[in-house]
Amino acid sequence: MQFKEKLEDMQAKINSYLNSIIPRDEAYINNLLDSMRYSLFAGGKRMRPILMLTVGEIFDCKAEFILPFAAAVEMIHTYSLIHDDLPAIDNDDYRRGKLTNHKVYGEACAILSGDALLNFAYEHILDFSLKYNDTRFIAASYEISKAAGIYGMIGGQVVDIENENKPCDIKTVEYMHKNKTGALITASVRSSAVISRVNADDLTRLTDFAQKLGLAFQIIDDILDVVGDDAKLGKKHGSDLKSNKSTYVSLVGLKSSREMAARLTNDALNLISFYKEKAEFLYMLTEYLLNREY
Amino acid sequence: MQFKEKLEDMQAKINSYLNSIIPRDEAYINNLLDSMRYSLFAGGKRMRPILMLTVGEIFDCKAEFILPFAAAVEMIHTYSLIHDDLPAIDNDDYRRGKLTNHKVYGEACAILSGDALLNFAYEHILDFSLKYNDTRFIAASYEISKAAGIYGMIGGQVVDIENENKPCDIKTVEYMHKNKTGALITASVRSSAVISRVNADDLTRLTDFAQKLGLAFQIIDDILDVVGDDAKLGKKHGSDLKSNKSTYVSLVGLKSSREMAARLTNDALNLISFYKEKAEFLYMLTEYLLNREY
Questions:
Q1: Which pLDDT belongs to residue B138?
Q2: CA B243 to CA B274: how far, in whole Å?
Q3: How many angstroms away from the CA of B236 is the closest CA of chain A?
Q4: What Pfam families does this protein's entry cite (chains A, B) (predicted)?
Q5: How many CA atoms lie less than 13 Å away from A2 in the CB half-sphere?
Q6: Three-state DSSP state, B195
Q7: CB contact, 8 Å: B135 with chain A?
Q8: Which DSSP state fits A97?
Q9: 3-state DSSP call for residue B229?
Q10: What is the rounded distance in angstroms from the CA atom of residue B63 to the CA atom of residue B38?
């Protein structure tokens, strides 16, 4: 199968799974469910779930064991976007070219839909873990929860907000990136690896890979915010500049940022070349994610 | 030990446990941690955690097995209050006589502190469950997650919001109460029972007890919103009337509401009298919760 075909196939599998687990037509809460679905199916690339299925494939792990956790990660990612977009935080009207959740459903519903997606992520993987009663599923759930919380995504988000309109140093920008986006990407790879019962060396190698991928991904985001094409991004570029945020680009310049992203990409690819043809798709996926224009 | 002494002893045990698990002095996220602590230690009665320890005692279950889950429930309860108080939802400036979280830390931080408490609740019980690798802890975690989500607290909250400024029927008010407050109270009792390895009959009996307790508690809340003393409540009464919310009192009147609360209280007490002197404290606790003026 060609790369693009396989990518679309995985996206379809994830969308179909997500569609099957979010309830429909429940008396009293239909508006809430609509709002959750609206953001969950607003055109996300499913990068994290695809990464998870891809890691699982290297170790011949069944997709049915990865999918519940991939869905949870996507729900957590989506809730964080809904809350980030709120007037009190980034105050964004558009995301991926569509109105943000609170612009369609109102602020109260957007806050609660975010809460509901976060909670449903845990509800879903706990339900699954209870059925199978196998420690690796608890270990994977814990990996995800740690990465989503104060020592991960939420911690990074807080620093991002405090960083607005205030110049900060490269260490702070690194902390922010490592936690706000990097932690959940790393947890995606690690949780899949744990579910696939990899050995300690593999877990270290894949963690290293994921950290480099996550950081490169975020540096590229910073670069695209300066040089990106609005139509491809689905949002206005220049938002970091507008909110006076320190970024890699503002601190070390465009040229150094590009070199850094290239070096990290190269390192990430070298790490997974260890798995030879088994990691062919992960190799292509990494190149694809790090050569994007959106 | 006298009732009040034991109650205070349990509160102290829960506060000390909560204090030990919420981190302090972490570079970059101190403001977030302060904000989480602010609401977590804003004078909550710890009703749910106390209920959980009390149920555990009936079956001689070690407190160390219950405490992590009791803390999780209290964190979930606290996050829901922070988000409820936000300007976009109830827009409350005070809770329990203190400024609400967003009035002290700002809206962005209040949203993220709520998210952080919800996530940390799961992070904490997953960490614990992973250490012990015992199905009852996963079952208890799942009970809590279900009750906190779309089929529980969040579902009830959505209906509560939609119910503002719009008359609704008694079925809708029942749905709202059952889910917004009842579900987490029931999950508190059920999760403790599951951790205590009770049999199926006990689980049914305790579920029935918890549902009656939760509903009575909420009807009394509605009554106190009409006849309560602001100083004892720590907030202004009449807030339901102000926001035009339908309640038990507005739909069936004060007299019928009182009769209903009395009947439910009586039924709840009858159910636990099955455990005789083993349930003495739970009996007193139930009377205490349902004869409150605040």
A1: 98
A2: 42
A3: 22
A4: polyprenyl_synt
A5: 3
A6: helix
A7: yes
A8: T
A9: coil
A10: 25
pLDDT at residue A79 is higher than 70 = yes
Does residue A275 belong to the interface with chain B, where contact is any CB pair within 8 Å?
A: no
Q: Which two tokens stand for residue A115?
A: 């809460």
Which one, of A38, A44, A7, A4, lies nearest residue A22 by Cα? Answer: A38
**Is A158–B112 a contact, with Cβ atoms under 8 angstroms apart?**
yes
What phi and psi values does residue A229 have, to the nearest 5 degrees? -100, 120
**Residues of A with Cβ-Cβ distance to B119 under 8 angstroms:** 118, 145, 148-150, 154
Would you say B75 and B120 are in contact if contact means Cβ atoms under 8 Å apart?
A: yes
How much of chain A, in percent, has pLDDT values that exceed 70?
A: 94
d(Cα A267, Cα A273) in Å, to the nearest integer? 10
Cβ count near A45 (within 10 Å): 13
Cβ within 8 Å of residue A18, ≥6 positions away: A40, A41, A71, A74, A75
Q: What is the pLDDT of residue A233?
A: 55
Is any Cβ of chain A less than 8 angstroms from the Cβ of B83? yes
pLDDT of res. B237: 63
Separation of alpha carbons B37 and B23, rounded Å: 9
Write down the domain spans for chain B.
3-290
Q: CATH number for B3-290: choose from 2.40.128.630, 3.40.109.10, 1.10.600.10, 3.20.20.190.
A: 1.10.600.10
Average pLDDT, stretch B20-47?
A: 95
For residue range B61-119, what is the model confidence (pLDDT) as tens digits? 999 999 999 999 999 999 999 999 999 999 999 998 999 999 999 999 999 999 999 99
Tens digits of residue pLDDT in A88-145: 999 999 998 999 999 999 999 999 999 999 999 999 999 999 999 899 999 999 999 9
Burial B151-163 (b: 16+ CB within 10 A, else e): bbbbbbbbbbbbb
Whether B271 contacts B212, CB under 8 Å: yes
- Residues A167 and A195 sit within 8 Å (Cβ to Cβ): no
SS3 A27: coil
